[in-house]
Structures are given as C-alpha cells and as structure tokens.
Design goal:
Blueprint: H1 2-10, E1 15-16, E2 19-20, H2 38-46, E3 52-55, E4 60-61, H3 63-72, E5 80-86, E6 91-92, E7 96-99, E8 101-103, E9 107-108, E10 113-114, E11 118-121, E12 124-125, E13 129-130, E14 135-136, E15 140-143, E16 146-147, E17 151-152, E18 157-158, E19 162-165, E20 168-169, E21 173-174, E22 179-180, E23 184-185, E24 190-191, E25 195-196, E26 201-202, E27 206-207, E28 212-213, E29 217-218, E30 223-224, E31 228-229, E32 234-235, E33 239-240, E34 245-246, E35 250-251, E36 256-257, E37 261-262, E38 267-268, E39 272-273, E40 277-284, E41 289-290, E42 295-305, E43 310-311, E44 315-320, E45 323-325, E46 330-331, E47 335-340, E48 344-346, E49 351-352, E50 356-360, E51 366-368, E52 377-380, E53 399-400, E54 413-415, E55 422-424, H4 432-438, H5 462-478, H6 482-498, H7 504-517, H8 523-545, E56 547-548, E57 551-555, H9 560-571, H10 587-615
Parallel strand pairs: 3-5, 4-6, 5-8, 5-9, 6-10, 7-11, 8-12, 9-13, 10-14, 11-15, 12-16, 13-17, 14-18, 15-19, 16-20, 17-21, 18-22, 19-23, 20-24, 21-25, 22-26, 23-27, 24-28, 25-29, 26-30, 27-31, 28-32, 29-33, 30-34, 31-35, 32-36, 33-37, 34-38, 35-39, 36-40, 37-40, 38-41, 40-42, 41-43, 42-44, ...
Antiparallel strand pairs: 1-2, 54-55, 56-57
Length: about 625
C-alpha cells in the first residue's frame, strides 16, 4: 500500500476529461512539466543546467516543451547536455528532434509514444539506451550519432522508416522484435559489439549498405518483406540468418564475411545476388528454400553447404571454395552447379528433377555421389579419383563429359610373397571402390585406400563393384566412348574373376581370357602370346615335327628358320611349300599344326579386337 501511495505522490495531479495525467511531477510542483503554468514552468526549468538528470516519464511533450527543456540544459556552445534521462511512457505529440544532444547517463524511452518522428542527429549517448516497446508513428532516424554503451530497441514499432546512418554503436545492440512497417536504412553504420535483429520485421526495403559488424550479428527469424541489401557490408564475426525470410531480392554483392555466414532454414522467395561475395569461413544454406532464385554466386568461400535445401525453380550455383556439401538437397528443375577448386564435393541422397550439370576446375574433386538417382546428371571437369557411387541407381544414364579423371592402378613393378612374386598392373581407368578393395588384398603393394568422406561405410566387395562397373560401362557406350567403356569392361571382368559368387570353372576361363589378351582389350598381350606360341611350335616342329625317309613315326631334325616360316603359314592357314622341308609330318607335327591353326587365328583375332576397341570412337 505504501509503495502504491508513493507512486501516486509522484504522478501529476492534473485531471481532465480523459482522466488523471500519468506524468511524473516536477520537483517544484504537484504537476508535471506539461501542466505547469508559464511561471511555474519557468521556475522548474530554471533548476536545470547542463548535465542535469531529467525524469519525464508519462509526460505529454510537445515541440515547444522539448525545445524549452533542451534550452535549459544548453552549454556555452549551444549543445544540450543531459545526465540520466527518463522518458518512460512519455508521449511526444509532435516530431521529437534531439540534435547535437549529449546524454551522459542512461536514457530510457521504454513504451514511449511518438505521434510524429523521432530524430537523433549528431547526438551522443554515454550510458545505456533503452527504446524497448516504444511506438513511433512517423520515422525513427539516427544520423551521425554515437552510442557508447548498450542500446536496445527491442519490440519497438516504427510506422515509417527506421534509419541509422553514419552511426557508431560501441556497445551491444538489440533490435529484437523490431517492427518497421516501412523500410529501413543502416548505411555506413558501425556495430562494435554483438547486434541482434532476431524476430525483427521490415515491411519494405531494408538497406545495410557499407555497414560494419565487428562482433556476431544475429538476424535469426527476421522477416525482410521488401528488398534486403547488404551490399559492401562487412562481418568480422559470425553472421546468423537462421530462419530469416526474404520476401523480395536478397543482395549480398561485394559483402565480406570474415567468419561463417549461416542461413539455416532461411526462406528466399525471390532472387539472391551474391556477386563477389567473400566468406573466409563457410556459407551454410542447410534446410533453406529457394522459391524463385535463378542464380547463387559467383561467391568465394571456404565451404558451401546446402544440406536438405530445396530449389523450386531452375538454378545456377557457382562458387570458388574448398568444399561443398549438399546432402539430400532437392532440385525441382534444371540445375547448373559449378565449383572451382573444391577438394571435396558431397551430394549424397540429392534429388534432381531436371537435367543437372556438375562441373569444376583442375582441382575440383567430386567425393561422393551415394544414394541418388543419376539419370539426369552430367559431370564435366571433375576429379573422381575418390568418388563413391555406392547405393546410387541409374548410373547407366550418367553422362560423363570431358575432363573427367578416374583413379588408375599404381605404376611400375611390384614385389610380394604371392605368385608370380613380381608383377605390374595394367594401366586403365577404375573406380575408387576397387582401389579400396585391392588395398586390403594380398597384392596390396602400391595400393592406398582412398580418403573417403564416409570412412565408416562398409567396404564394397567385388560382387557389388561389378554392378557399378556395368552401369558406368553402359553410360560410356551410350556416349560412344569406346575406349572409356573398355576400361570399365576390364574392371567389370576383373571383379567377376575375383568375386566369390563366380564358380571356379568360370574363374579359370576368365583367368585364361585375362592371361591371353587382357579380356580382349590388351593387344600387346595377345600378340606376345601369339609370338610365344609360334616360336615354341617352330622349335617343336624342328625337333619332332617332320618325318625322315617317309616314315611318319621317325622324326628328322630340320632348320628352325624354315620351321618358323612353316609355323607362321600354318597359323594363317596358308599352304607354303618349302623345298628344304620334307612333305610328311609326324604324328606330333600334325598335332602341332592343328594347334597352330586353332590358337593362332584366335590370338590374332583377340589382338585385332583389342586394337579396334582402343581406336574406335
């Protein structure tokens, strides 16, 4: 009861048809400054001097009264100086102009009402400033002013423009819940400490041109109903736009982020402009939705993330970055993705509703394409040396354009405690999954496990790798790339030969096929075997191939050179009569000639097929 009585004793005693005035009494009267007669007002103002603290809470202040109060606190230079200033629930009936005013203490405008505009021009606030829940029916304009301590405009309602220009905030700033029905400008403003716009709403265009944010900037759940300009702004710490909504154009041209720029679950209803946007940390659009954006970038960033984001219209994304991650991203229509210099691009589980091209530069590495539909994908100028395809389907429709790089087997000769103890690997394009599998086998010399992004994923076995090779081989064949298809066919046959599900008899046949001609793809191997067969047959014919004195069971040694010519002619099914050789063959000789006529054309045919597969386009 005593507290309520004390409050009543501080309230103006004036009553009118609207009820009792809620203004704080002047120190020399039982009424507030607004209801004093001229003589009493003059007496009350005479007690003020530069640096005086004032309490005008609940007072109705018109332009004349505000001018008189400022004049009472002017120094010799004509500048109004206040100590602590309380305007809590005050009602400014006209434009409130604070020009070249110095506030040395805390300033409170909590729940104050401005029938006109509130203007702070060349003003300085040395203490905390509270503008919470204030209502400005005109514009709030702060020009070339300085806030030394904390400033809060939380839940303030501005009917027109909300402008901060050429202003410096040295303490934390809160504009959380700010509702600006019209536009806003923050040109060349400097925020030295953390600033938050969480939940704020701008009904029209909002500009943060050339604004500097030295500490964390929080725009979480902010609503930009008009155009949002952040051109040439600078963020020295993290910038958070989580849940923000951009109703019109969102422009970040020439904006610099010295740390992360986070746009989790943001909504972009129109275009996004990121020309020359530079982010030294990462840019994350995870969970965001782009309804009509046609282009994002070009931007420069450490990392680009758009996990579970959705793009409802044709989109082009271009970035120069260290890594890209778009896990379970959804592209409703056509997409063009260009990532320059990215050492790791991950698009696992992404869905593509239209033709999608993914391209990069000399060092762009596509690290993972797992669990997606590749039927509309086109890859160009990307490194696939450690790309994982496990779980993806329609790989046979994947289009591989120029500049694609696959892993290759280790070069040179290798030794081990496995027959034949010294070996070398055939040069070919292969899949990273096979490289990982071979690095764990007995002949692992020279093989290294690729640095997969999914290190915890189960290693694929040959039975599973076969399907990947088969699908990619078909994709190469459909693109009329016979040499590329041949490499994938070689890998497919290798995995068939090594697969546990392949019967032993088939494994033996595949082994012979591999030894004699590299699955019909290695002409040098087939020609080498052909030369060995002809040489051995020639030596055998020279020793036991020709009969002596017409007896088929008795052999007579002959010239090796003549037998070599005879073996070659037999291989080619040509009847060459040499006067130096007998006409009759021994039983062994007939068997050798039969073998030459059978295996010689076969080996030559395999060599021809291998050559044709390499030169055919």
């Amino acid at each position: 009861m005593r507290e309520s009585e004390a409050e009543l004793n501080r309230i103006c005693s004036h009553k009118d048809s609207y009820g009792r005035c809620l203004g704080v009494r002047a120190t020399t009267s039982d009424r507030c400054l607004a209801h004093l007669d001229p003589r009493s007002l003059e007496a009350a103002l005479s007690e003020l001097h530069p640096g005086s603290s004032i309490d005008l809470s609940g007072v109705r202040i018109d332009a004349e009264l505000l001018t008189a109060i400022k004049a009472a606190c002017q120094d010799a230079n004509g500048h109004a100086i206040f100590g602590a200033a309380k305007f809590m629930q005050a009602h400014f009936t006209e434009d409130a102009i604070f020009e070249e005013v110095l506030f040395r203490g805390a300033v409170t405008f909590i729940r104050a009402t401005f029938s006109g505009s509130a203007l702070f021009i060349l003003s300085e606030f040395e203490g905390d400033v509270q503008f919470d829940d204030a209502e400005v029916r005109g514009s709030l304009e702060v020009y070339n002013s300085v806030f030394e301590q904390r400033a809060s405009f939380a839940r303030a309602r501005i009917s027109k423009d909300c402008s901060f220009e050429l202003t410096k905030f040295h303490g934390p700033v809160s504009l959380a819940g700010l509702n600006c029905e019209d536009g806003g400008r923050s040109s060349r403003v400097e925020f030295a400490e953390q600033v938050t716009f969480a939940g704020a709403t701008y009904g029209q265009d909002c500009r943060f041109l050339e604004t500097s944010f030295h500490k964390r900037a929080d725009f979480m759940n902010m609503s930009f109903r008009g155009v949002a300009y952040f051109d040439h702004a600078r963020f020295d710490d993290e910038a958070h736009f989580m849940g923000a909504q951009f109703g019109e154009l969102a422009s970040f041209s020439h904006t610099k982020f010295c740390k992360d720029a986070v746009f989790y679950n943001a909504l972009f209803k129109r275009e996004v402009v990121c020309n020359d946007m530079r982010v030294e940390g990462k840019v994350s659009f995870a969970g965001s939705r782009f309804e009509r954006a046609s282009q994002i970038g070009p931007m420069f960033t450490e990392g680009l993330e758009f996990d579970e984001s959705s793009f409802d219209s044709p989109i082009q994304i271009e970035a120069t970055c260290a890594y890209v991650r778009g896990i379970r991203a959804h592209f409703e229509s056509r997409a063009t993705l260009r990532f320059h210099g990215a050492s790791s691009v991950i698009l696992d589980g992404a869905t593509f509703g239209g033709p999608t091209s993914i391209s990069g530069g000399p060092h762009s590495v596509l690290a993972s394409l797992r669990d997606l539909d590749a039927s509309t994908l086109v890859l160009a100028n990307v490194d696939l040396t450690r790309c994982q395809f496990a779980g993806s389907f329609n790989l046979d429709k994947l289009r591989l354009d120029s500049g694609i790089r696959f892993p290759v087997p280790p070069g040179g000769f290798h030794r081990g405690l496995v027959l034949p103890f010294v070996w070398r690997w055939s040069r070919r394009q292969m899949l990273a999954e096979e490289c990982a599998w071979r690095s764990c086998q007995k002949k692992s010399s020279g093989w290294t496990t690729p640095k997969f992004v999914h290190r915890d994923a189960d290693q694929l076995e040959p039975d599973q790798i076969i399907e990947l090779y088969r699908a990619l081989r078909k994709a190469r064949e459909d693109a009329k790339d016979e040499p590329g298809a041949a490499d994938f066919y070689y890998g497919e046959m290798e995995m068939r030969r090594k697969a546990k599900s392949t019967p032993l008899s088939e494994q033996f046949i595949l082994w012979l096929y591999w030894v004699t001609s590299g699955y019909g793809l290695r002409s040098s191997r087939a020609l080498a075997i052909f030369a060995i067969v002809v040489a051995l047959a020639s030596m055998a014919l020279a020793s036991v191939g020709f009969a002596a004195g017409g007896h088929s069971y008795l052999a007579a040694p002959q010239s090796w050179r003549d037998c070599l010519l005879y073996a070659l002619s037999s291989t080619l099914s040509l009847e060459v009569k040499l006067a130096s050789l007998p006409d009759n063959l021994t039983t062994w000789g007939q068997g050798i000639r039969l073998a030459l006529r059978l295996f010689g054309p076969l080996l030559l045919g395999l060599a021809f097929l291998a050559i044709r597969g390499r030169v055919r386009r």
